[in-house]
Amino acid sequence: MINALWYLGRGTGVVSLVLLTLVVGLGIATRSGRPLPGLPRFAVTAVHRSASLLAVAFLVVHVGTLLFDPYAQLDVLSLVVPFTAAAQPFWYGLGALALDLILALVATSLLRDRIGPRIWRGIHWAAYAAWPIALAHGLGSGRDAGTGWMLTTTGLCVAAVLGAVGWRVSDRFAEVRGPAPAPVVPAPLIGVR
Ligand code: HEM
Fold first, then answer.
1. C-alpha of residue 111 to centroid of ligand 1, in Å
2. What's the pLDDT at 175?
3. Most Cβ neighbours (<10 Å): which of 9, 23, 112, 181?
């Protein structure tokens, strides 16, 4: 059982990182206002939203299982207050920092109608900070960081985000002027009063 928690905790960490990579790439694609091969514009936004929800779900399992794993020595506070973990405070603290930023992104997306698009967009820039912080956390604390499959996964994630960011800052990136893109509201909450 203890081993199962340990493997589930680490496995969901890797899946979360891959999903966050997808979310960053799709977020940039959404902002471009362009379709992707096989995905019309509205679908790019919808997949961005769904991938965000899925990433948060995997993150909940990641921290939830590791909270009960005796090896990680975590308590509820150290999940959200950076650099307070008993073991590996720096590397686990980066995970907590990334989690806080992601929670802020989700919360402000849910409250976007109230806070307005300017504040929402300003806070959404935090996605560019959350991703490398999460990556550093995985590399620094992960037991699998030196394995071939994890190095390959990390390399592909880095290449994907660098490619997307490179496109974002290039002259070819045409932003949609006018209405800002739809907020990242978890799909099941849409339409719920
Ligand atoms: C955006 C948020 C996060 C992401 C994307 C993430 C991702 C990862 C990844 C990729 C690994 C490496 C797994 C492996 O090598 O097999 C990992 C390990 C781990 N993470 Fe996270 N993580 C996040 C947040 C957190 C938080 C908030 C905590 C708790 C403070 C945490 C605690 C751990 C622990 C205890 C490990 C295992 C380290 C070890 O192998 O010794 N993570 N995480």
1. 28
2. 60
3. 23
Asked whether the predicted pLDDT for residue 136 surpasses 90, the reply is yes
For residue 66, give the ligand 1 atom closest to its CA.
Answer: 35
DSSP 8-state secondary structure symbol assigned to residue 172? T
Give residue limits of the domains in the chain: 2-189
pLDDT higher than threshold 90 for residue 149: yes
The pLDDT, as a whole number, for residue 181 is 55
Whether residue 193 has pLDDT greater than 60: no
d(CA 162, CA 176): 21
87 CA: nearest ligand 1 atom: 35
Residue of the CA atom closest to atom 32 of ligand 1: 92
* CA 155 to each of CA 9, 10, 67, 87, 91: distance values in angstroms, whole numbers, following the listed order: 21, 18, 28, 27, 19
Task: Give the per-residue pLDDT at 172.
Answer: 87
Backbone angles phi, psi at 126, to 5 degrees: -60, -20
The rounded Cα 124 to chain-centroid distance in angstroms is: 12
State the DSSP code for 39. Answer: B
**For the CA of 150, the nearest atom of ligand 1:** 15
CA distances to 4, 12, 64, 159 from 123, in Å = 36, 26, 26, 25
Q: What is the token pair recorded at 96?
A: 């907590």
Q: Would you place residue 190 in the very low, low, confident or very high pLDDT band (cuts 50, 70, 90)?
A: very low
